[in-house]
Structure formats: C-alpha cells, structure tokens
Amino acid sequence: MRKYVNWLLPALAGILILAAWTGVKEVFGIRNFVLPSPLRILQAAIKERAVLLAAAEITITGAALGFVAAALIGFLASMVMSLSASFRLSLYPYILVLQMTPIMIFAPVLVIWMGPGLPTVTVITFLICFFPIVANTTQGLISVDKNMVDLFRMINADRVQEVLLLRVPHALPYFLTGLRIAGSIAMIGGITGDLFAGNTSGNAGGIGYMVLVYDGQLKIPELWAAGFTACLCGFVFVTVVLGLNWWLLRKWHDSIVKSDV
Amino acid sequence: MDTPNPPLVSIAALQKRYGQGAVVLDGINLDVNKEEFVSLIGPSGCGKSTLLKLIASLSPVTSGTLTVDGMSPKNAREEMAFIFQEATLLPWRTVTRNIELPLEVSKVAAAKRSEICARMRHLVGLDHVPEHYPRQLSGGMKMRVSIARALSVSPKILLLDEPFGALDEMTRDRLNEELLAIRAQQKFTAFFVTHSVAEAVFLSSRIIVLAPNPGRIAHDFTVPFPYPRTAETRESPEFQRCVAEVSRILRSVSPAHP
Ligand SMILES: Nc1ncnc2c1ncn2[C@@H]1O[C@H](COP(=O)(O)OP(=O)(O)OP(=O)(O)O)[C@@H](O)[C@H]1O
Ligand SMILES: [Mg+2]
Question: Which positions in chain B have a beta carbon within 8 angstroms of at least one beta carbon in chain A?
Fold first, then answer.
C-alpha cells in the first residue's frame, strides 16, 4: 500500500502539471516559441534522440570523471586535513577560495591553460564537486566521540589503526553525504564544461553545447528536450550515488535502517 | 623496600589540575591490592572520573606519584581495560567484531581471536546474537558487549566509570551479579565509579568516599561481608545497615543544599 502511494502520488501530480501546462498554453494561445507543448517536446526528443543520446554520453562522461576525481582527491585531502589542526587552518581558506570563485570565471581560464576537451570538462566538474566532499568528510574524520578515542588509546592502538578502524568508518556517512551533494551538482559541472570547453566537431557536442546550437537555430522544442535530457542525466547520477549510499550503510546506519521491523 | 605483596596500584600525594584550572584532586594517598574491588563514590564533580583517567593514563598526573603494578600507568596500559558509561561500541561492527577489536589491534591471530571472543561472548550471555549490530541491541546487551570487549584482553585491572548508570534497576542488579560471577573466574582488580550506594556496597570489598573542592579521600570503608554475593545478599539486614552507613558518610561530605 505504501509502495503504491509512493509511485501514485508523484504520477498524479505529474499528470496534473502536464494538463495545466497544456491547458494554459491553449487558453492563452501561447506560441510554441515561448512555450512548446509537452507533446511537441516529446516529438522533438524522439526526432533528435540520436543527437541527444550522444550529447548525454559526452556530458555524463565529463561529469562522472570529474565527480570520481573529486571523490578520490577530496577523500585524500580530508585525510590530510584531519591529521592536524594546523593543516586545516592553513588549507581551509584556499579550499574556500576555490568554492567561492564562480565556476564561470574558472572555466575560460582553464580553457586557456588546457584547451577545450574532456580533460578540461573533467576539471571543471571536479572544481564544483570537490568542496562538499572535503567539507563533509573532514567533519566526519574529526568529529569522533572523545570516549571512542580514549577507548582506542586504552587498547594501545597506534595512529594508523585509529584512523583506519575508527575515523574512516565513522566518516563514511559524512563522505557519502558529500557525494550526494556533489552528485546533484556534477551535471552542472558537465554542462558548464560543455558550454565553455566542450570538444565540438560538426554539430555534435555535450548537452550544454546542443543547447547553444538549438538556441541558435531557434529549435525551441528541441532546446526543451535537451533540458529534460540533462535533468534525466542528473537523476541517473543521483540514483547511482544513492544506491551506493544505501549499499554501504544498509547494515548499521540509522539513516538507512529507519523503521524497526 | 621489598614487601612480599606490594600493592597493585599505589597512589601517593597525588594532585591533579587540568591545565591552569582549579585543583581537581589533592593529597590523594591510596594503595589498592590485587583482587580488591574498590568503588569510588562522591558528589558530582569531585573527581571520580578524573581519578580513573589518571590510573588509565588517559590524562597526566600534575604532581605526586601513581604506579600501576610497579610501572608508570602508561607502561601498564596493557594490563588495564576501561569500561565507559556509554557502551562505546563501533556501530559498523557486529557484536563479535566489537568484542574482537582490542585483540585485532594487538594483532592476535584470527583463530585465537575468535576462540577468545567466543568464550567472552558466552561469559556475558550473548551467545545468541553474534552477528547483531549495536543498533539491534538493548542498553543492557550493549553494556555486556562492552564488558566482554574489556575482558577479552584478560586485564589485571578493570576501570569502570558508571557503567550501569543509564540502565534500569533490574538490569543493573542482574549485571552487578554477573559482574561478580565473572570476577570470581577472571580475578581482576576493579575500580568502579558509581552514584549508587547500594551498587557500591553490593559489589565492593572497599568503598572510597571522595569529598569535593578539591577532591580528596574522606573515608575509606571496608565492606564486611564475604563473596560470593547473590541477589539475597541485598535483602540481609547487614547489607541494609551498610548501605545506610555509607549513605550517611556520603551525605556528610556532600555540599549542603541552601
Ligand atoms: N577534560 C577536562 N578539562 C578540564 N576540566 C575538567 C576535565 N574533566 C573534568 N574536569 C573538571 O574536573 C572536575 C572533576 O570532574 P570529574 O569528571 O572527574 O568528576 P566526577 O566526580 O566524575 O563527576 P560526575 O559524578 O558528575 O561524573 C570537574 O570540576 C570538572 O569540571
Ligand atoms: Mg564522572
């Protein structure tokens, strides 16, 4: 019954939204140029599916590579920062600088340095995914209960054992929270990457690039279709991360094991 | 000087302050022999936990001497185990893996580890939940895991800081009886911090009453009746008298309420 409701309610809401969309368009006679009908967008998506699929692949590749790099390097950076308060104190401001500088500023600079292409898109995605991962993971590594640390001292654990057996597992849910946030913005990195640094040959490129192309050709339903493709990719991304989160924490963490059945 | 039976823990003229703060413990002199069961009671903030931490070398002594089995507390750490008020279990480890933790850290071979662990699990009555995670256990069961983990290294000295403070009275009484039964087998020396006079009297061979500001030993009380003690012990008039007397001492050192 609960399962039903979980699907049924969003589905109903979706139908209502589509109906309202179509209704408003008809009643006010809004032109396709301003707001295409859902059906028109679907048709455009089907017509352009080969192009959109190829574009999605390009964008997702850049987003995924940047995301994975951010996960790995972010984790290592957190380990380093958890080692001493002096490290944290000296490094954190600069990680913040990375985060506070808008990616639109970095992107052209990176293109000057690296030229357009997948490596540049990867770095752009990396830059926006890095901070949430580092901030959360570092927090997890240093927020271990004092009694737990005392316990590890009592059993004569060395520093490496304390990190591997206590701090890292304790930080895992924090790390995964960082991944979830990063996962939801990785597509922004991929698309920004396409826009500024996409490798384009002929009329093909990532989704960001296709948005530019369709816009230039006034193919407005196709533009919308590209938007929905990006949205879909984002969902795929987040679903993968949520799956990983569930799988790693399923046995012991309260965020997963909610109901006591 | 060589005595035939030197005290296991020897504390002399000990003073403790945290950083530049107020003196927490002052002029503590205390010798504890092998296999004594010593309870520490006293008003909140008088330094009971601090004293345990000093013995465990989790915090440095400010001045005075403190030796454990003839060594500095730091060097004697391998002979000690600490049981905290919260069970301090690792939530990502099963009961078995939690009990094994200290053995794993000291690199005991896997086969030996699981043999010891099975014995300890049996000792605390957790044979039926080896693969459970802490979140699946009751408070009492968690504390049993914590006890099994502490005992897995066969400590000479067990330091317990209000281990049963968060449990209901029935569970607490049960665990008290089990703890004594285990001690009859394992022969450890215990330092036990509690706020419950009845618990202290039931468990201990000796009760140290601390007075606050600064923390110092106000009374050193020997509990007169022998082990083994059972649930019936609590009903004897002798026990009641003892509890009444220690309570009176405790009240006399507690700051008066305005
Ligand atoms: N890590 C610390 N840093 C500074 N002061 C501390 C620290 N730990 C304890 N104190 C102080 O030392 C005094 C004794 O604390 P302690 O925890 O030993 O008392 P206690 O007898 O165990 O109290 P309770 O019965 O409430 O547990 C208190 O005044 C406390 O504020
Ligand atoms: Mg205390």
Answer: 53, 56, 58, 77-78, 80-82, 84, 86, 88, 90-93, 101-102, 104-106, 133-135, 153
| Residue A235, domain CATH | 1.10.3720.10
Domain with A93 in it = 56-258
pLDDT tens digit sequence for A171-207 = 999 999 999 999 989 999 999 988 888 776 665 688 9
The whole-model pTM stands at 0.88
Cross-chain Cβ contact A152/B105 below 8 Å: yes
Domains of chain B, by residue range, sit at 9-253
Write down the ipTM of this complex.
0.92
Single-letter residue type at A136: N
* Cβ–Cβ below 8 Å for B92 and A169: yes
The ligand 1 atom nearest the CA atom of B195: 25
CB atoms within 10 A of CB A110: 21
Tokens of B26: 């002052």
Is a pLDDT exceeding 70 seen at residue B208?
Answer: yes
**A227: nearest Cα among A64, A79, A35, A88:** A35
Q: What would the CATH number be for the domain defined by B9-253?
A: 3.40.50.300
